[in-house]
Amino acid sequence: MTVKKYKGAAGGWGSLVSTGKHLLHSENVAKNVLNLLKTNQDHGFDCPGCAWGEEGKKDRFKFCENGAKAVNWEATSRRLTPVFFDQYSVSTLRTQTDYFLEDQGRLSVPLMYDAETDKYTEITWEGAFELIAKHLNGLESPDQAEFYTSGRASNEAAFLYQLFVRKFGTNNFPDCSNMCHEASGIGLKQAIGIGKGTVTLNDFEHADAIFVFGQNPGTNHPRMLHTLNHAAHRGANIVTFNTLKERGLERFANPQSPVDMMFGSSTKLTSLYFTPNLGGDMAAVRGMVKVLLKRHEQAVENGDRVFNLKFIEKHTSGLEEYLAEVKATPWSLITEQSGLSKDQIKSAATVFQEAKRVIITWAMGITQHKHSVATVNELANLQLLFGHIGKKGAGLCPVRGHSNVQGDRTMGIDEKPPQTLLDNIENVFDFKPPQDHGHNAVQAVEAMLRGDSKVFIGLGGNFAAAMPDTEVTRQAMSRCNLTVNIATKLNRTHLYPGKNALILPCLGRTDIDLQQGKPQKITVEDSFSMVHASQGVVKSDIRKMRSEPAIIAGIAHATLGNEPVDWLALVDDYDRIRDLISQTIPGFTDMNKRLANPGGFYLGNSAAEYKWNTSDQKAQFHRAPLPEAIVPASQRALSKNPVFVLQTLRSHDQYNTTIYGFSDRYRGLSGDRHIVLLNEKDISAIGLTSGDKVDIEALWGDEVVRKVTNFTVLAYDIPMGNAAAYYPETNPLVALANHGDYTFTPNSKSIAIVITPAHDPVPERIV
Ligand SMILES: Nc1nc2c(c(=O)[nH]1)N[C@H]1C(S)=C(S)[C@@H](COP(=O)(O)OP(=O)(O)OC[C@H]3O[C@@H](n4cnc5c(=O)[nH]c(N)nc54)[C@H](O)[C@@H]3O)O[C@H]1N2
Ligand SMILES: Nc1nc2c(c(=O)[nH]1)N[C@H]1C(S)=C(S)[C@@H](COP(=O)(O)OP(=O)(O)OC[C@H]3O[C@@H](n4cnc5c(=O)[nH]c(N)nc54)[C@H](O)[C@@H]3O)O[C@H]1N2
Ligand SMILES: [Mo]
Fold this sequence. Notes:
36% of the residues lie in helices and 17% in strands. The strands form ten sheets. Strands 6-5-18-17-16-7 form a six-stranded mixed beta sheet, with helices on both faces. Strands 25-33-30-32-31-34 form a six-stranded mixed β-barrel. Strands 12-9-8-14-15 form a five-stranded parallel beta sheet, with helices on both faces. It has three domains: 79-177 and 404-597, Rossmann fold, CATH 3.40.50; 182-399, 3-Layer(aba) Sandwich (Dimethylsulfoxide Reductase, domain 2); 633-757, Barwin-like endoglucanases. α7 (125-137) packs across α26 (548-560) and α14 (281-301) crosses α18 (342-354). By secondary structure, the chain is of the alpha/beta class. The termini are close together. The chain is built from 31 helices and 34 strands. 57% of the residues are buried. The structure holds ligand MGD (2 copies) and molybdenum atom. The site of one ligand MGD has 33 residues, from α24 and β17.
């Protein structure tokens, strides 16, 4: 384990060197150079990394360092064959790291679990489909099955999947969005009538100020740094709220700029950087509004104004009640909860007030708390006061995670489907889809645990590692009669099989997808509601892999026959799937034709056109009191030791549960992921020294002990009382019931913990 402060800018040579290393590790260098040149290009594939959008410019390179990692990781030449499972039983594989599991290469044949030998062996595709059909058709009710989706699935795959599952008879669609941006969807729908961001990439070129909340784009959306870089060069103010001083938000050297690369120059991105307490953003924004309200009232006395009264009058409701709430919020609570001083909050308010056009972006630092919906509402409130929605250069921008997580929802991967979707399905396919809400991810685990749900099917992802309360989630999976995972790489979830289990190997974004000898394209939707095509270009060794649409069609055909569609014929030509999407999903008319447009097409955004699809057809101010405390007194009282608030986050060398390596370059950390970052003063206050081994125990208040052991505590620039550690290693600390209000999203960014010297400081684990 080494700690060394990273002094350089984000990007620059460090990014190039890292990209080269991962290129070599793929053992597929020549082909992957071609792959990288096709990343995010017209007639190429959409980067399987994040959901940031494409700039229209004809850049030769449209990938970033972490996009390159994702491409190299998928397009490796290594193949995982049945021979591997001759060597390893599932129990032995459980002792291996996540890195080891995925590093074995691409899954290449369908596999079935044999409980007697505790090994996976090869099965035919037809055998696999029949087994699934037998289990599904044998259930007493379709609601006894769970159909998970991770956000890499294409629109075509997602559409087929939801059609199959609804015809089968359930809305049980737990998905990765349930753990991710659920609060953004719910909060924005309440406020502005649509659960998506209101800006396009072009808006960033016109904003005077960009406020970035709870997001680490240098690692998780690196192409956003280019956008921020342009904005900073234009003189726009970038204001950051992040509990950690993230290097990527401070300084950026553009690897595509010859000047930056030759002369080592870089750009200062953030002009004002605030480090609030975890969960303190709602308080900070409330404070900003309090400052602005006072200024507004003073201005009004002088016949002037600060708020955009014309916009408020014409487009909004609920102002009075909201402002009453703001007045009732005491400064003492605002400064205590945010950890920011009144002066700091005032300075943020001033930048906001002086900007004519403001964009607010956010990610998991906002959405993974108990009060996340209220916080998203608060961000919307601030924008509404100034009319910063619908005009050029202004708006709300939840930056999505998985590259097609937004598209999957649009296609109907939704346990609470809108009535219009259900009605459209009924009209087009002539059957009545189930009307009751289905299970989200937390409810799915609960149902499997109770034994109510007996079949789990995962379209991508790593459910058992991504979900909280690791032991409980794994038990839930093991109790199923059948678990099925459609995947590119072996992962932890596959090692917690039900009584029967299948792993079905699928093609990824970088692979050429041939159906009836004809290459197929798929489509995705980015954070800016742009839909575009994606197509693998470099020939790879696909063995027995099948495409996701083909696998779903195979399952559907075996389970339902040709009802309500000829599944297998649809897959012969994906244009046919898109024709059905055009008929069923609003905004997709003439999809096949419109895809011909380079860069794809824009779905539009009702709020950006001043159409508010809310209960009163107005944009709504929502009022909510600040939470009493981020860790309630009752929880603090569970221990005599000092209680810290822990966030679980991503390193620079991972994609969610996929671990590419052990270097968190911009944070200057490398070697081991079992670490916890604390303020130096906090470390001495609990009688420890940086580098000591510790155990971390969560305080929740039920009987269960939730603990991870033998972590290294490290002194770090982090506000006192706050802690940070990596996901998924710390997922065992989050109780399943510890989730957001209305969202059921695990509170992965505010876990109450105590830290004690390691009870058994034996380094028993392999890295
Ligand atoms: N390379 C790479 N790219 C990815 C991913 C990946 O794992 N690797 N994951 C993808 C996915 S699915 C998602 S959802 C996104 C995630 O993108 P992010 O949301 O950027 O991911 P996290 O690592 O969870 O980082 C949370 C950031 O918010 C800060 N933060 C945490 N809590 C708070 C808080 O309460 N207040 C404030 N102000 N700040 C806080 C943390 O310090 C950290 O900088 O990235 C996507 N892109
Ligand atoms: N503690 C904590 N927990 C968290 C989070 C956190 O910040 N803290 N973040 C949450 C968030 S934001 C999210 S989105 C979830 C992520 O949860 P998931 O989406 O379930 O997890 P991933 O790690 O992205 O899934 C990786 C696996 O997907 C498979 N895969 C990769 N590409 C493809 C493909 O093209 N097709 C198919 N079928 N499979 C593919 C590979 O087998 C790989 O092992 O985790 C959540 N969990
Ligand atoms: Mo996510």
